[in-house]
Amino acid sequence: MYVEVPPPQSRSIHLVHGAHNRKITRTAMFAGLGVVVVALGGLYVLCGELDNFLIACATIFSGYVLIMSSVSLVSLVYMQRESGIGDELLPAVPNGPSAETFAVLIPARHETDVLAETLLNTMWTQRDHPAHTVFAIVNDDDPDTAGVAARTATVVNLAVAQDRSYEQIRSELHTALAREAAPERDPNRLAATVPPGPLQLIVYPLGNRPPNKPQQLNYAFWRLHESFSVFTVLDAESIAAPGLLRAVDQAFQDHPGVEIIQGGIQLMDPQITGSRWQRIGRRLHRWYAWHNLLEYKRWFSSQMRYQSDRGFMPLGGNTIFLRAQLLARTEAWPMSLTEDCELGVRATAIHRARTLTFYDPRLTTREETPPSLATLIKQRRRWNIGFLQSLVAGNWRSLPTLRQRVIAAQILSMSLFQALSLAVLPLVLVTMFWIDTPAPLAVAGWIPLVPIALSVALQLLHLREYSRGFGRRVPWYVYVLFVVTFFPYQLVLSFAAVQAMVWYGLGRLGWDKTAHVGDHFEEQVAAEAAA
Q1: Which residues of 297-322 are buried (b: 16+ CB within 10 A; e: fewer)?
Q2: What pTM value is reported for the model?
C-alpha cells in the first residue's frame, strides 16, 4: 500500500534516515562559520597589515585550488590509469534467458513536446527484453501531458499487438498526435483507456502538495514493488540505447550480490541545421553545451567508477537500476531536489549496497544539453541545493572509513568550493596584479594552473572520444571555443553555486523544473531503432 511522503518542511530533517540521526544541526553550522571568522581574524592579527593579510589569503586559496584541481584530475584519469578497468566498464553480452522483471519509470510534467518520442523509443529499443513495462507517470493536474501519454500508449500497444513495423507505428503515432485532442481531460479516465501492452500510464494524485519528481516515483514504486524485481528511471527526454535492459539483466546475473547498477548518460550537442554560418553562429551561441556534455562524459566514464570502487556513490540522474528490495529498505526515493544523489548516499552509506557501473557509447542514454544559459544555471542551482541538503543531512557520515567520509564530503561540498571561488577571485586578482607580492609566493600562486591546464588538455581528448564514440562531427573551431570559454564556464558554475547557497539559506527548497525542447532527437535514432 502506498504511504504518502510529506514534502520537505526544513532544510535537512526530511533527509535523515530513521534512527540514524546524523544530521548537522544549525548550531553546528553557525559554530563552523564562527570558527572560520575567528581564524580569519587571527590571521589578520598575525599579518599585521592588510596587504600581508590579502597575500596570505590568496596563498591559502591557491593551495586549496591546487588540492581540489589535483583531486579532480585524478578522478578524470581514473579509468585510463587503472589497468584493465576500461574493459570492466562494458557490460557482458547477454548469453542466456532473462531473469529480472523491469519497471521503467518515466516521470513527466508539462512534457508534451518530448514525451511521445521518448515512450516510443523506449518501447522499441527494449523490445528484446521479454519482462518489462514502461510507465509514464504524470500528475492529475497535468491533463495535456496525460493526454499525450495516453494517446501514445494506446497507439503503440495496439500496433505492437498487430506486429507493426517501427515506421508504421511512428507514422500512426504522429497522425494521432496531430489530430485534435479528445474532449476527455481527466487524467485518471485517460489512463483507464490505455489497452494492455508495454506502455502504461500512472496518474499521481497531487492534491495540495507542491509537484516534484520523487513523489511521482514513490507513488509508482509502492504500487508496483510486488510485481517487478528491478526499477529504473528515465527522464522525459531520454533516448535509451537498444538492448539496454538485456545487458543490465545479464549484469545482474553475472554479479548476484550487486543491488545497484549505474549506466552511462551522455548529453548530446544539439542538432543544428541551416547554412554554414548559421551553424557556426548557433554553436557559438550554445558555447556552454560542449563543457556541459564533457562533464557528463567525465562523470560517467571515470568519476562514477572511482566513487563506486571507493564504496560511496551518489547516483546520477537516470539509467539507474535498483533492486526492489533495496528500494523498500531505503523507503524509496528521498524528498530531495537531487533524489538520485541522496538515494545513493543512503544506499551505500547506511545499507552498504554493492554497486556496479558501466559506460559504453552503444548502451548510453542520450539527453539534451540545456537549451539556454539561464536553463543551465537553473538546473545547476537545483543540483547544488540538493547536494547541500545531502551534506547537511549527514547520512554520508555513516560510511565506515575516514577516507570514504572525506571523499563524500568533497563531492557533496563542491558547490561550497565553487561559491568560494567566485567570492575570492577578486581578492586573488588584486593580490596578483596590484600588490607587491614576494617572488616565491607569486610563483606559488600560479602553480594551480598546472593541473587545471592538464585537465583542459584531457577534456579536449575526451571531446575527440565523444566525436568518435557517438558519431558526431565536432568542427575544429569547437576545440578553440572550448579552451577560450573554459574559465567563463567555471564562473557560470560558481554563480549558480552562489545562488544555491542563498536560496538554501532562505529555505527556498521548491522543485524548479528544467524545460526540455528535444533538440537532441535526430533521424539516426529512428534509423537505429528501426534496425
Answers
A1: bbbbbbbbbbbbebbbbbbbbbbbbb
A2: 0.86
CA angle, corner 340, sides to 337 and 345, nearest 5? 105
Burial pattern 267-291, b for ≥16 Cβ within 10 A else e, equals: bbbbeeeeeeeeebeebeebbbbbb
Contact 378, 329 (CB under 8 A): no
Dist CA 495 CA 350 (whole Å): 33
Confirm if 503 and 202 have CB atoms less than 8 A apart. no
Phi, psi of 96 (to 5 degrees): -160, -175
Residues of the chain predicted below pLDDT 50: 1-22, 83-85, 523-524, 526-530
Residue 515 has a pLDDT of 65
Contact by Cβ (8 Å): 153, 163: no
Residue 526 makes CB contacts below 8 A (sequence gap 6+) with 166, 170
Ranges of H-type helices in 15-77: 26-47, 50-76
348: DSSP letter: I
Q: Cβ contacts of residue 209 below 8 Å, gap of 6+?
A: 7, 215
pLDDT for 39 equals 81
Backbone angles phi, psi at 352, to 5 degrees: 55, 40
Q: Measured on CA atoms in the order 190, 195, 196, 198, is the torsion positive or negative?
A: negative
Q: What are the cell numbers at 351? A: 545499507
Distances (CA, A) of 450 to 77, 96, 276, 356, 454: 15, 50, 36, 33, 6
Report the distance separating Cα 64 and Cα 104, nearest Å.
42
pLDDT of residue 19: 36
Can you list the pairs that 481-486 forms with residues at least 24 positions away whose Cβ atoms lie under 8 Å?
Answer: 481/283, 481/284, 481/287, 481/290, 482/290, 482/291, 482/294, 482/456, 483/456, 485/287, 485/288, 485/291, 486/291, 486/456
Looking up cell 500512426 gives 172
d(CA 245, CA 131): 10
SS3 87: helix
DSSP 15: G
Q: How many CB atoms lie within 10 A of CB 427?
A: 14
Evaluate the CA torsion angle 126, 127, 132, 137 in order and state its sign.
Answer: positive
**Cα gap 126→399, rounded to integer Å:** 36
Q: Are 445 and 432 in contact (CB under 8 A)?
A: yes
DSSP-based three-state secondary structure for 126: coil
What percentage of the chain's residues is helix, strand, coil (to nearest 5)?
Answer: 60, 10, 35
Strand order in the sheet with 260-262: 199-204, 132-139, 102-107, 230-233, 320-323, 260-262, 355-357
Which one-letter DSSP state was computed for residue 328?
A: H
List, as own/partner pairs, every contact residues 183-187 make where C-beta atoms lie below 8 angstroms and the sequence separation is at least 24, other chains included: 184/147, 185/143, 185/147, 186/143, 187/138, 187/139, 187/140, 187/142, 187/143, 187/146
